[in-house]
Amino acid sequence: MDIPAEIGKNVVFLYCNTQKTGMQTAGTAFLVSIDFPDIPREMEVNYMYLVTAKHVIEGIKSHTEDGEVYVRVNTKGGGSALLSMAGTEWVTDASADIAVADWEPPSDADLVRFPLEGAATAENLASKNRHLKTGDDTFLVGAFLSRVGQTKNIPIIRVGNIAALADEPVVTRVGEQDAYLVECRSVMGLSGSPVFVHYEGPHQQMMRPGMNLMHLTGRQFFLLGVMHGHYPTRDDELVREIEGLGAQQLNTGIAVVVRVERLIDLLNREDLRRVREEAQRVLKTQIEGRRPET
Known about the structure:
Elements: E1 11-18, E2 22-35, E3 46-52, H1 54-62, E4 70-74, E5 80-84, E6 90-93, E7 96-102, E8 114-115, H2 122-127, E9 137-142, E10 156-164, E11 170-172, E12 175-177, E13 179-183, E14 194-198, H3 213-217, E15 221-232, H4 237-243, E16 251-259, H5 260-267, H6 270-290
Parallel strand pairs: 2-8
Antiparallel strand pairs: 1-2, 1-4, 2-3, 3-7, 4-5, 6-7, 9-10, 9-14, 10-13, 11-12, 13-16, 14-15, 15-16
């Protein structure tokens, strides 16, 4: 599978400040963007959000004294910066393990956004003569807790396949999810990671200023959804007796990926849409004010 190295620049690592151990990595988040419909695309102006799993944000807030979420981003100088998200509102939905935050990365952040026009929706894939099916190649990028990096984020990539389509809700510890099952062993730290479906095809090898990940890939991979976590073994007493297992649950190697449609639904919620519309109105006024008089 030919995956551009720049995909690692799409993610940041989430941290929490605990009284016992100090700063600890808690999960992964990634940067998506939505174009302004009334602003020319060549201006490369868009609205950006940080996306992760809702249970990661709730876990950070409930297990720390200050309740703050911290984001570690790589910087263009080669190091990293730990940023407080204090005052940032994380927007969630009761029916999906997804959280989003209106977020503009600092100017020195070494990040690449993923436009939601690259979502793996049925309509979008059909326009590219593609459709999802079991066995399709997938990959994710995120934090590996055993080696997050000492001076900067070092995300890992895990590859796999779609094991089951979203024909019915998947029962998880945080409720039923509209999700795919993916053959990819998810471990702590990868929750909130972006998961992509990959199709073979050429992509450009070099990033240029103003490019985003959709320019880079030639649209050969699409955002499948948000990593929830691993799908544990069923707690079946008879099976445990037959297999000689204890009561602990095992990582089956199957991960739960919340469908990208649920992320789109959340971002299209009326209150978020109104904020983007107001931002577009202000931006258009600024652009028109800079135009020379004729």
